[in-house]
Amino acid sequence: MLGYITAGRAARDFLLEARTEGGYRLPEWPVATAGRRPPKLDHAVVGPAVARLRLMERLLVGFLDPVEDAIFLTVGLRRLGLPAALQLGRELAPAVAPGGLYAWVRCGDEVVSTSLPVSEEYVEIPMAER
Question: Model pTM?
Answer without folding.
Answer: 0.85
